[in-house]
């Protein structure tokens, strides 16, 4: 009787250990994805800043009126 209880507990522990391992792998993959997304957001922000700077430079030359105005 005690042996059956021990075996049942060992089965539950093995199942829980497998579940924890699966969850750890999921968290690890999500961490990788988050890092990739952070990099993409940083690159996108840099591109936007560069575009804004170039737009500002172009618009300032376009808004300059000739001296006779």
Count of alpha and pi helical runs: 1
Measured as a percent range, the helix fraction is over 70%
Globular, elongated, flat, extended or rod-shaped: what is the shape?
rod-shaped
How much strand content do the residues show?
under 5%
Compute the gyration radius: what is it?
30 Å
Main beta sheet: strand number and arrangement? none
* H-E string: H
- What's the total count of β strands? 0
Mean pLDDT over the full residue set: 89
Low-pLDDT runs of 5+ residues are none
Distance between the termini: 103 Å
Structural class: mainly alpha
Structure description:
With 69 residues, the chain is mostly helical. The protein is 90% helix and 0% strand. The chain contains one helix and no strands. It is rod-shaped. It starts with a helix and ends in a 6-residue tail after the last helix.
Question: How is this fold's topology laid out?
Answer:
Layout: H1 2-63
Question: What is shown here, in short?
Answer:
The protein is mostly helical and 69 residues long.
List the main descriptive attributes of the protein structure presented here:
69 residues, mainly alpha, rod-shaped
